[in-house]
Amino acid sequence: MRVALFLTCVNDTLYPDTGRAVVKLLTRLGVDVDFPMAQTCCGQAHYNTGYRHEAEPLARHFSDVFGEYEAIVTPSGSCGAMVRELYPRMGERARAEGRGDTLAATLAPVVPKTYELTEFLVDVLGVTDVGAYYPHTVTYHPTCHGLRGLGLGERPRRLLQAVRGLELVELPGADECCGFGGTFALKNSDVSAAMGADKVRNAESTGAEVLCAADNSCLMHIGGTMARLRTGMRPVHIAEILASTEEEPAP
Amino acid sequence: MSGTYLGMPAFPEAAREAVADTTLRGNLRHATHTIRAKRAKAVTEVSDWAELREAGKRIKDHTLRHLDRYLVQVEETVTAAGGIVHWAADAGEANEIVTRLVKMTGETEVVKVKSMATQEIGLNEALEAEGIHAYETDLAELIVQLGKDRPSHILVPAIHRNRGEIRDIFAREMSEWGRPAPEGLTDTPAELAEAARLHLREKFLRAKVGISGANFMVAETGTLVVVESEGNGRMCLTLPDTLISVVGIEKIVPTWQDLEVFLQTLPRSSTAERMNPYTSTWTGTTDEDGPQNFHLVLLDNGRTDTLADEVGRQALRCIRCSACLNVCPVYERAGGHAYGSVYPGPIGAILSPQLRGTGSEIDASLPYASSLCGACYDVCPVAIDIPEVLVHLRERVVQGGEVTREGNKVVLRPAKGHAAERAAMRAARWAFTHPGALRTGQRAASRSRRFHPRTLPGPGRAWSETRDLPPVPTEPFRDWWQRTRGGKDGDR
């Protein structure tokens, strides 16, 4: 099976290790991964900040780049939700504004083919034990767009539970937002920081070494707060845990 | 009592103070987490919750689509039952009508049932200006009124106060308004409730005029419905000679059968109760029983304009249960006052900028008072997609566009203060539609990584004040991919 990796602009620029982990993991599972070099950004930050007209060219660009692939896999719940939930809505709005069906028709092909990584593993490949080894205590934060936008449910936790050596501990208040929210972290910095601090305190109370999530944007906010509060905990993307093996263990 | 809401600072500034107030944060956290857990349990007890939610949504959407017809029906049925119907286009008109009606009775005191609509129009202040004293009889509203404070929650207006603060307010203020608080009042709930009961009893027995809102109006019979927990509302609805109800035009349900849906979803969503303790209904007037004069003031105040917006109109489905406030992580930290409106929390963030327009600083900032986490949409018993409306209103703020104000189509210009952001968004869009440019930027960032400051200038400062930035990697992913063909040519 040949899939396109939609890495996201944030991961490409700031978290290449997550991208390498996805490639390593999928290759190990027999998937032929391609990285279309023309990919950039899904337009989520634009759309959610109110710049829908700036987001539309990015959505069209996304469709141009990924339209031909059988499946598109992304290690980001929020960028996955952007494509799956909000691209159809962008098409509807264009129609409602009397701009016809063109945008909807352009975006439609990529919508059902786009999968968040854990969803792709469990639903498409049908695996929960990906042969990973990660000897650490881990707590899992289900990010908002993964949890409520895409409805990832128990998939990430089932994957983590099957990892050898990994001890999964419950995060109190797991389904509460960490306070990142894209430009929210800048526009409402005080509230965002208070939410982040509460999330980190909850994570600390578990005694875990690692806080894991399926979205590096949230992890950037949580990890930045952890570093500032000197907790000694580390944020780690779920792809890096699932890619980790005894031969090549992730730190 | 309460100062004016408009002219308030934008949400981020108003929230800053609340976030720093540890007592307030503690009060809010305790209250919202308790009710949140109870609501979740009360909802799982109902096997057909998803169907009830969908039914509530459909009934409200149907009513809003045919609101003109149902409003005429309400006028006919209320009039036939002996009531008098008044139409108010805005807050000023509504206040004028109510003031005139009270003056006609010759009274200078009225008792009030807790009502969001009268809070919205500032009725108490308008009556006070005409020498009429309005006494709030809902316990939480009483606390707010005595404390010369503003409500901060739809259902529990005094949620920001703890027992000790309430005791102090009662002991200090009750004598100014009527029967003083008993000597040596403590902060035990029973003693506080008894003090309020004695204070209010005097008001109920003396009042000749009652003023209420309504949770619902049943069009087929012209019946108004109030749901409450304490029974104080029922006293106001039955004891006075004259009853004046001020109700938003969106509160209609077509039939009693429709009402059945909401009498299940409202109490479970708001107080996590299986059924409501006091559900009062009144239809016009009845000889020798209850108020002999009944007036219904139908309030528009921006609702028709909101109805004209096809994305934003879903906010009018709201039944004011406040479930969205109780789950909102932003409300929990910022408190209700930061929203600058009688409608705080997620629903306030979409309702106020629609009812009032996005012209003021506070209204333009409200659509951004959310991390778009979606918890509010999940709990809403009438399935209002609050995140969708927030983004829609953000678009209105930064891009402008056509809206309906006072029945006329007007074209809004983009709000001020977003020029730099707009330029940045445009530049980012340009880079993202030119992958080569993006790559050049990524490489420049990687090469200069050793020189990156630990704290950021400009708007980025808000980030680096409380969080560390991640280090920029030595090589963006796409360069690694190209160099190694995805690891096939060796990983390092």
Which characteristics define this entry?
heterodimer; A: 251 residues; Rossmann fold; 4-stranded parallel sheet; 13 helices; globular; B: 492 residues; 2 domains; 6-stranded parallel sheet; 4-stranded mixed sheet; 23 helices; 12 strands; Cys_rich_dom (chain A); Fe-S oxidoreductase (chain A); oxidoreductase activity (chain A); repeat (chain B); electron transport (chain B)
Roughly what is the average pLDDT of chain B, rounded to an integer?
A: 94
Query: What separation lies between the terminal Cα atoms of chain B?
Result: 69 Å
Main sheet record of chain B: 6 strands, parallel
Unreliable stretches of chain B (pLDDT < 50, length at least 5) are none
Q: Biggest interface pair, residues each?
A: A-B, 72 and 67 residues
Count every helix of chain A, treating DSSP H or I runs of 4 or more residues as helices: 13
Strand arrangement, largest sheet of chain B?
A: 1-10-7-4-2-3
Secondary-structure-derived class of chain B: alpha/beta
**Nearest-angstrom radius of gyration of chain A?**
18 Å
Helical content band of chain A: 40-55%
Strand fraction band of chain B? 5-15%
Name of the level-1 CATH class of the largest domain in chain B: Alpha Beta
Largest sheet of chain A: 4 strands, parallel
How would you classify the helix and strand content of chain A by structural class? alpha/beta
Any idea of the CATH topology of the largest domain in chain B? Rossmann fold
CATH architecture type of the largest domain in chain B: 3-Layer(aba) Sandwich
Supply the number of structural domains of chain A: 2
Task: Give the averaged pLDDT of chain A, no decimals.
Answer: 97
Distance between termini of chain A? 30 Å
Low-confidence stretches of chain A: none
